[in-house]
Automatic annotation (TrEMBL):
SUPFAM superfamilies: Cell wall binding repeat. Gene3D superfamilies: Cholin Binding. It comes from the Bacteria. Cell wall-binding repeats lie at residues 104-123, 144-163, 226-245. The keyword Mitochondrion does not apply. Residues 1-22 form the signal peptide. This is Nucleoside triphosphate hydrolase.
């Protein structure tokens, strides 16, 4: 099947303010391979594009139910070739509008929505790994993007793309860090030889933080200030190597 591929490149640029302090460590620069990157897009075949194959001819012997012809599966009911959505044995399938060939092994655009069908033609729901990355579909099989809440954890799927994992990302004006399994992380997070702190909702903490009897300071888009002086609201503060505030002048 010759697929017409919709390849869209979404570039997510995480813009970080320039702040001149010897004591700061850039959270985003520490993760530069992820902070300004191309978000890979799902390859989606349009439902109208698959026209290179033909349906069984009248001269071909077909039976009710599934038929295999010319490398593709077709479904016949009451002697008639079926098209569109098909529910069979507890699974949803989709049969090409013109030829009736079953969709399989990829993403397909149907009525403006993206669906994933596995190698058996089953429409998938929930988390889907297509060989490139993880995506998410709702109970109706429609691909979702944005924030996903699943099994008590939050995830983020880039529009038209895949779940973030092992990376910081700027979402709705706040930085978040997504762990190796894609779940948003909270509390103290140590990455690339630096510490950052993320609130209960996953957003990176900005400004002063009081934790376990000690004060720390974080810039927007940056890890905590460490090992030197930093001027904050016109006052100079000194932070030790662990980021703990020591004294001011």
């Amino acid at each position: 099947m010759k697929k017409k591929i919709l390849s869209l490149l979404l570039v997510s640029a995480l813009t970080v303010p320039t702040i001149s302090h010897a004591a700061e460590t850039s959270f985003v620069q520490q993760h530069s391979k992820n902070s300004t990157t191309s978000v890979e897009q799902k390859q989606i075949t349009t439902s109208q594009a698959s026209t290179q194959f033909s349906a069984p001819k009248a001269s071909q012997q077909v039976k009710n139910g599934w038929n295999y012809y010319d490398g593709y599966w077709f479904y016949v009911k009451n002697g008639q070739l079926q098209h569109g959505w098909l529910y069979d044995a507890g699974k949803w399938y989709y049969l090409h509008e013109s030829s009736g060939a079953m969709y399989s092994d990829g993403w397909y655009l149907i009525n403006g929505q993206a669906y994933y069908f596995d190698s058996n033609g089953f429409m998938k729901v929930g988390w889907v790994h297509d060989g490139t990355g993880w995506a998410y579909t709702d109970a109706n099989g429609v691909a979702q993007n944005g924030w996903i809440y699943d099994a008590g954890k939050w995830y983020y799927v880039a529009p038209g793309g895949y779940m973030y994992a092992n990376t910081p990302a700027l979402v709705d004006g706040s930085y978040y860090y997504f762990g190796h399994n894609g779940a948003v992380m909270t509390g103290w997070v140590y990455t690339s030889n630096s510490w950052a702190y993320f609130k209960a909702n996953g957003a990176q903490h900005v400004g002063w933080l009081y934790d376990a009897g000690k004060w720390y300071y974080f810039y927007h888009g940056y890890t905590m200030v460490t090992n030197g002086w930093a001027t904050i609201d016109g006052v100079s503060y000194y932070f030790d190597a662990n980021g703990v505030y020591q004294y001011s002048r």
